[in-house]
Write a structure and sequence with these properties.
18 helices, 512 residues, 3 strands, globular, Ribonucleotide Reductase, subunit A, three-stranded mixed β-sheet
């Protein structure tokens, strides 16, 4: 008689042993107490799991290299949407790598065979996802009508003013206590945000003619559902020990805000500003996936066990109304330093925004009208000139301090005992800094590049196309040479990058 799968699992877990090749106490210590036995979140043997994932890979890579390549699908994608895949794939791929590191740390830290089984299977997934998304970037670099920028993805994560906050938020998967890392990755990022990313963006991609991205993203998301089970099992284990509760809430609140501060503002810009054919507004996606399904249907039900919804969830909801628009405006103003093209908005776009975000034109319309006029290099003006000064960058989330809107920004300026000036985009980021200032002492993009000529930054940053003179970034998606900005056009502007914090008067700052 064949043993049941459950019986096989129980038998195999009985063979769990303590590794003798390292001293467990010296590896990735955790402040959390985890019970030695819990329920198995995966209930799949690793050998079976690998075979299942291999089959999925065969289908995905076969589709990319066979049918989609022969149909020249990439040439049929809306150019505006194809451009945003350059930063999206670069950032998400780094998140997968950080997730792989997180689960590897958990395997070495958590002395629980059921949880460790799930972490091992997830680590295998994350290796797979890292390769899938890197392969998709390579695929587009070979097949996209304008491939410039896909080959710069890994570099832009460290240098680009949008890449730096993207990298910073995903580093939270691997640079802290392993259980805190798990909260960031499994409980918040994978459970709250993979649906707006891999599911919603798949809808948007397909609507804009892209079939390659859905073939990869849906394959990835089929794994994320199991990773959510890992997060629930880890969270249940943590909640079962009363002594964990005081520090759990603080870590959970911080994890949510750090994910929100970048992901919501970035995805808001991606969904609303880089789609030619739109499915929904990002606000609608967020309300469904994050507010109702995650915070409402999931986290609220854990309140009897000691976990409350994030303390800044209402601030996040208020910011989502305008945050993506503010981020998109600042990003567009910085178009010369990006490795992707940032298209201007048309009358059709204006109508969409005013319908989905009533009052949008009054707050953002003038900028986008001027931006459209400045797209022509023969006029010799950059959208940077529309601002009397660019906003400072938040020390914690590394995003510009313009949220929820530039006219109602919540920027907080502080100076520490060493005389270093800091800006924070919100009360939440300021609170997070005060809890652990040593974790947020990195320089902002403004500080790193203060005093550098814009043309010099572009040349040194490898942001020129293969002809050595045309910029990768453009304020449009035209291909006519008359519309393409060159390094000579940038030199004529004479713009020098300046850190706005340095020019503010001392009385604007309060002591930390």
């Amino acid at each position: 008689m064949t043993a049941s799968v459950t019986a096989q699992h129980e038998k195999i877990k009985a063979f769990d042993w303590e590794p003798s090749y390292f001293h467990r106490d010296a590896l990735y210590p955790t402040k959390y107490k985890i019970p030695p036995r819990t329920k198995d979140p995966f209930r799949t043997l690793v050998r079976e799991y690998v075979g299942m994932e291999e089959e999925k890979d065969d289908r995905q890579y076969g589709a990319l290299e066979d049918a989609l390549s022969r149909m020249n699908n990439s040439a049929q994608v809306e150019p505006r949407f194809m451009e945003v895949l350059k930063p999206v794939l670069a950032f998400v791929d780094f998140g997968e790598y950080a997730a792989m590191k997180c689960t590897a740390m958990l395997i070495d830290t958590v002395q629980n065979p059921e949880l460790r089984q799930g972490f091992l299977a997830q680590m295998i997934d994350e290796v797979r996802h890292t390769n899938q998304e890197a392969y998709l970037m390579r695929y587009f670099a070979k097949h996209a009508p304008d491939p410039a920028g896909f080959n710069s993805g890994f570099m832009m994560r460290a240098n680009d003013p949008i890449g730096r906050p993207g990298r910073a938020v995903f580093e939270a998967f691997m640079n802290d206590d392993p259980i805190t890392n798990s909260l960031n990755l499994q409980v918040v990022a994978e459970t709250a945000y993979t649906n707006p990313l891999f599911v919603a963006l798949t809808e948007v991609a397909a609507a804009n003619g892209d079939q390659a991205t859905p073939s990869v993203f849906l394959s990835v998301q089929s794994d994320e559902a199991r990773h959510m089970a890992n997060g629930y099992a880890t969270l249940a284990a943590v909640l079962s020990e009363p002594e964990n509760l005081p520090m759990l809430q603080e870590d959970f609140d911080t994890a949510f805000w750090r994910q929100h501060a970048f992901i919501d503002n970035f995805l808001g810009g991606v969904n609303d500003y880089f789609s030619k054919v739109r499915v929904k507004s990002y606000k609608e996606f967020w309300q469904q996936w994050v507010c109702e399904d995650w915070a409402g249907s999931y986290i609220e039900r854990l309140e009897p066990f000691g976990l409350q919804v994030p303390r800044w969830i209402h601030d996040a909801k208020r910011h989502v109304e305008w945050g993506g628009h503010s981020a998109a405006m600042v990003s567009a103003a910085l178009w010369p330093v990006h490795a992707w093209r940032s298209d201007y908005m048309t009358e059709e776009d204006f109508a969409f925004f005013e319908d989905k975000y009533p009052g949008w034109e009054g707050y953002y319309g003038d900028f986008w009208k001027a931006y459209r006029e400045m797209a022509d290099p023969r006029k010799g003006h950059l959208a940077l000139e529309l601002f009397p000064a660019m906003p400072p960058i938040c020390r914690v989330c590394q995003m510009p301090c313009v949220f929820p809107r530039p006219d109602t920004n919540e920027v907080r300026l502080s100076i520490d005992t060493a005389g270093q000036r800091h800006a924070f985009c919100s009360e939440a980021c300021q609170h997070i800094f005060r809890q652990a200032p040593e974790r947020h002492c990195g320089m902002t993009w403004w500080e790193v590049n203060d005093g550098v000529e814009l043309s010099r930054y572009i040349e040194d940053g490898g942001l020129l196309r293969s002809d050595g003179r045309t910029l990768m970034g453009q304020p449009h998606v035209h291909t006519d040479e008359r519309w393409l900005w060159t390094i000579d056009d940038i030199r004529r502007t004479g713009i020098v990058i300046q850190d706005p914090l340095k020019t503010l008067p001392a009385e604007a700052f309060t002591e930390i």
